[in-house]
Specification:
This protein is mainly alpha-helical. Helix content is 55%, strand content 3%.
């Protein structure tokens, strides 16, 4: 009798483990039936926004590994997801929804945003759980883009984000990705910190923040870009200045694009660095457009037409192009690029409004995910792109 019970218990555990593996695969297959049927951009916008507010309250966990079998073991070992990954997922959703509520009186979405803020910050306006990595700076930036709340209420959290960045400044004056990786500079960090540094510096009169953001971008331009093509490597070593990882990693271009265009957007027209960053915007726009595919997407390796399309790259570069179109010299080509990107993203949106086929989380320098699925980061930038202040004239 004992052996029978033990046998049934083992079978039950095995069954649960198999279900944990099989159910997500089945649900992905089911969700992709009739994918890409959206024709009207306003309907698409409302659909992706509804998913965005839902995910802001309960953000899908992004896997650290590419493991699709025995996933339960990853869960038990704590290798399934990490908080640092979640910061930029949540930030993107919040940025997108911040854009949406500027153009819509939707009280439910505003209330949903307030509930999210209450889950992250205490009554003193500081983090409930203090972040340890600079990834959190992009979430702090997203809070600063909410024009219907009192931003100064969260000043303690914003100050904390600035202090966290300062703690990650290396000996040569640029910001590290992680304290234990002090010899490397990652392209991701430009997207994580530069928009926040400029917005925070302008709002609270800290010129050193703006100086640091510009230094982070310009130093990367000097050491981390492919000569003749102006696309970033994944990282570079600060002593040897040797670039590391892949030149043309799609989301790497996306991180550089976000950091550059949002930092440029935040600067007043008369600021001394406005023209400096504008030169970089023009140069990067021309470089990135070269690698946009005919159907409007960028691939996960932008330099290879044979590699898979990546929705996260396409959404972030689409956002970049839409904003870069403010510059007269490159306006027309950027508008065409942004429109093509939007049309592609509509074609890879599931019928429930979730944008599909984004590359999963990167494992290490030069070690990239081969899973392509939903990603809140992509969802947020699609919403953000559709609700930018001049989007109605373009897309």
């Amino acid at each position: 009798m004992i052996f029978q019970i033990l046998g049934l218990l083992i079978l039950g555990i095995v069954g649960i483990v198999i279900l944990i593996d099989v159910i997500p695969i089945f649900m992905d297959w089911l969700s992709r039936i009739h994918i890409g049927r959206f024709q009207e951009k306003q309907i698409w916008n409302k659909s992706i926004t509804n998913v965005g507010i839902k995910w802001l309250q309960s953000t899908p966990k992004i896997k650290v590994t590419d493991q699709t079998r025995l996933v339960a073991i990853d869960m038990l070992q704590g290798n399934y997801t990490k908080n640092a990954i979640q910061y930029w997922q949540e930030a993107s959703l919040l940025l997108g929804l911040a854009g949406y509520v500027k153009n819509s009186p939707d009280k439910e979405i505003k209330q949903g945003i307030i509930r999210f803020l209450d889950s992250k910050f205490n009554k003193q306006g500081d983090w409930i759980n203090k972040p340890k990595h600079v990834d959190a700076a992009i979430l702090a930036y997203a809070v600063m883009k909410l024009d219907f709340v009192d931003i100064d209420r969260y000043k303690a959290a914003l100050d904390s984000a600035w202090e966290l960045i300062r703690e990650h400044i290396g000996e040569e004056g640029s910001v590290t990705y992680r304290k234990f990786m002090k010899d490397y500079r990652y392209v991701d960090t430009i997207g994580f910190i530069c928009p926040f540094l400029v917005a925070y510096g302008i709002r609270y009169g800290h010129e050193e923040c703006i100086e640091l953001a510009v230094k982070q971008i310009r130093t990367y331009e000097e050491h981390g870009m492919l000569e003749g093509y102006y696309i970033p490597s994944h990282a570079y070593q600060i002593n040897s200045k040797v670039p590391l990882g892949l030149f043309g990693w799609g989301r790497g271009l996306g991180w550089f694009a976000i950091g550059l265009i949002d930092a440029w957007n935040e600067l007043p027209q008369e600021h001394v660095y406005k023209g400096v960053l504008e030169t970089s915007v023009k140069r990067f726009a021309k470089a990135a457009i070269q690698f946009q595919q005919e159907q409007g997407n960028w691939n996960w390796t932008v330099t290879r037409g044979e590699s898979r399309p990546d929705s996260s790259t396409t959404a972030t570069l689409g956002w970049f192009m839409l904003n870069a179109s403010q510059i007269t010299e490159i306006s027309e080509e950027c508008l065409v690029s942004a429109k093509k990107a939007t049309n592609y993203l509509m074609k890879v949106t599931r019928r429930n409004g979730a944008v599909d086929f984004s590359q999963g989380d990167t494992k290490d320098i030069g070690v990239y995910s081969m899973l392509f699925n939903i990603l809140p980061f992509t969802q947020g930038f699609c919403i953000r792109m559709m609700n930018s202040h001049f989007s109605s004239k373009v897309i």
